[in-house]
Specification:
Four copies of one chain form a homotetramer. By secondary structure, chain A is of the alpha/beta class. The first copy, chain A, has a single domain, classed as NAD(P)-binding Rossmann-like Domain (Rossmann fold, 3-Layer(aba) Sandwich). Helix content of chain A is 41%, strand content 17%. In chain A, strands 3-2-1-4-5-6-7 form a seven-stranded parallel beta sheet, with helices on both faces. In chain A, strand 2, helix 2 and strand 3 form a beta-alpha-beta unit. In chain A, helix 1 packs across helix 6, helix 3 runs parallel beside helix 4 and helix 4 packs parallel to helix 5. The longest helix of chain A has 31 residues. The radius of gyration of chain A is 17 Å and the shape is globular. The mean pLDDT of chain A is 96. Chains A, B, C, D: This is NAD(P)-binding protein.
Amino acid sequence: MASKLIAIVAGVGPGTGGSVALKFASKYPVVLLARNPENYQGLAKEINDKGGKAIGISTDISDSNSVKNAVSQIKNEFGQDVGAAAAIFNASGGFLRKSFLEVPEEAFRASLDVSVNGGFLFSQATLPLLLKGVELKSEHPPSLIFTGATASVKSNARMATFATGKWALRALSQSLAREFGPQGVHVAHAIIDGVIDIPRTKDFLKELGPNAKLSPEGIANDYWWLHTQPVTNFTWEIDLRPAVEKW
Amino acid sequence: MASKLIAIVAGVGPGTGGSVALKFASKYPVVLLARNPENYQGLAKEINDKGGKAIGISTDISDSNSVKNAVSQIKNEFGQDVGAAAAIFNASGGFLRKSFLEVPEEAFRASLDVSVNGGFLFSQATLPLLLKGVELKSEHPPSLIFTGATASVKSNARMATFATGKWALRALSQSLAREFGPQGVHVAHAIIDGVIDIPRTKDFLKELGPNAKLSPEGIANDYWWLHTQPVTNFTWEIDLRPAVEKW
Amino acid sequence: MASKLIAIVAGVGPGTGGSVALKFASKYPVVLLARNPENYQGLAKEINDKGGKAIGISTDISDSNSVKNAVSQIKNEFGQDVGAAAAIFNASGGFLRKSFLEVPEEAFRASLDVSVNGGFLFSQATLPLLLKGVELKSEHPPSLIFTGATASVKSNARMATFATGKWALRALSQSLAREFGPQGVHVAHAIIDGVIDIPRTKDFLKELGPNAKLSPEGIANDYWWLHTQPVTNFTWEIDLRPAVEKW
Amino acid sequence: MASKLIAIVAGVGPGTGGSVALKFASKYPVVLLARNPENYQGLAKEINDKGGKAIGISTDISDSNSVKNAVSQIKNEFGQDVGAAAAIFNASGGFLRKSFLEVPEEAFRASLDVSVNGGFLFSQATLPLLLKGVELKSEHPPSLIFTGATASVKSNARMATFATGKWALRALSQSLAREFGPQGVHVAHAIIDGVIDIPRTKDFLKELGPNAKLSPEGIANDYWWLHTQPVTNFTWEIDLRPAVEKW
């Protein structure tokens, strides 16, 4: 049975997505989706070298054909009757901090395209696999988890591009939680409220000491915890921030 | 001076948009935007017959060329240096209540396109005119008002298509309120939480008595009230519902 | 009929309460409640001198006997069958900004006592009069309006004393809106998010220019607007802040 | 060091409090607070019999002398320099569903007294011990966790008594999270949105199947998970509900 259950992570890279994939790889074969193969190749190798199982599929999450192709590859690899124990949507539109009147229409549309249409396509592609996971009686309720941000609940000046997509994605996750919870799928949304500690942010917030940034491994642990909640005790939303973060 | 200040309403028809246009026409020339001319022709005639001034422009609010063309026509009609005292975004993506796995991608995209990209294009087109209104010292702070719904704050099962757009639009309005409030433009968002009393809903909620539906004229009064708030006392958000509505 | 309808304002002084009383006095006899007669005497005189009608009653809003006594005096003055067109709760517990471990228990209890128990007693005392106002077919739906603050929706560090009371008061107003709306009473809550322009705050925020503080007259206009909403279009909550306020 | 760190649970009984105490007893000596010794005696015996350590102290959480006495007993038992690894506030004012005009003042005050003043006194009593836990370098950040309910975020008709207390408690927890997070104490709030499966609710919701009620052990696992989050990844708030719950 277990061999029929996989985890799918969209938006992998050096931060949350990568750590989540590593965490879930300890129990499930994982499928890594990213547009750029460079973002999953090292990670897939790491997981496979450790004795886990991972495949990467180059996917444009905002393109329905690309997402359909990913599902086909998943079924070719794991069988037509594969189920998912977890699907994590960690992709995000561009973080464009700009005076509103200077935001190019294409940038606005492109950001929404990943955050919202990407979230839509990923959900429509993975929910049938998650429902299959329910049928296969996965040990933990199959889980669809979305990564949010501060901008999922607060829309600051000059942040409209990013925030519109993040609010919409939160709405998507809430609607799906209400529709698919009673069918046994656990839909959750995590508000990551702070800077994540990745190579790119190495020099950020140094003045606040060594604990000022969110640990990606910590986030992965929290996603795993959400995943292991029983069907009687589902959490839809958590917030996550460093203790020293102002909010 | 007053002749240089207009009101622009996107999304007119027999409900909120029409009543708002009539209300604002008592003080300003109004520009009526709708894709289908049938939606503004009668209204424009009614306003002009009453001694007000109204023009309609057929506009696809989700298409940037169409929106740009509307602005050109406005400037042709009212002068290159026209300012806006009010801009009301009352357009909405389709209200598609459907099991999520049955929502066609095109329907999802089309709904977002009106609610979010439409809101974006309308805001980028009208904010320069509203800022011009500030410069022209309009009697009331120039106002950019967005029409929301129950689904702007609650994303129910099978409502993801409509709710994603409405949450995103609310995020847009909040970001714009924070950016343009300090520049003198009053950005507001109204959560219409109930059924509006229009010909199409004539037979709805009869069992709840004669006051179970929102009056479009009442909504228009509320938008006007928002418009007249001084720069020291801006409201970003109001909710509106019939007294008998359950919430 | 009109002579049977009064407005009652708890918590009058040089700011919101006083301006609201003056505004409502243009249509209704007003009853001014404050613990200290100095807070209503000048105001009552001003209203009576202008040809309106006002009486002040020294009332400890957190003491049930004192509130009962106020109701008795109201009935003695206006008749046993008097109705209320409006009741405004503008009293507030102390604004104690202090490290939590240094907050004296008595200060915490005293603050709650005004904000929450005061709100409770005022509502239990005035709702029968407001329901009587419904019976008397007051022109505008009888209104019970609560004054909130930034701390009604955000509970900052070192603000627990004030915020607990304000959150509780908001909860009270929401529950009452749901219970008494269907009976024709309009219950509303206003989040005053900024500094109010009163003598005591004369020197605050000067660096932000002449419009950085909320005008009490503006707030009074907004309360009046809430009061005039028809039964088909009730607003439960508005926020109010200066355009330049950061939020 | 570990022997110097305890867990304190206020409001134990057959549901959440009891399960949380059992869970935390696997690592820490636990102190059980309840007014009625019957509510902790069996539980203390069960923990002690299993090789853990538990003491019960009869405490009226809304009475400052009673709470001070509890702290004295804790120090007598565990030493003057005892620290706390966790403090759980699970007490609650009465759940009085009643038409507002029929709520007796005493019932309203009594409910607030437990929820809000109780939360205040418990926090003031335990925070010094939690800060001591930080000093003692407890393995997991010392945690102060509050049990909320549906009524912590929604104030329904006829629920004002319970909801005012729960909203205030949520405000308290948010303010404390902001003040004490930077000092290393993890303050969290759990919204329990559904019926908890305890003897008293045995016959509730049978029509919804075997998974319609929250498992107290599940809640205890979630509190434990919150407790183990590192200082870089604190969650302030989670919601918890059965998958089939409508929300």
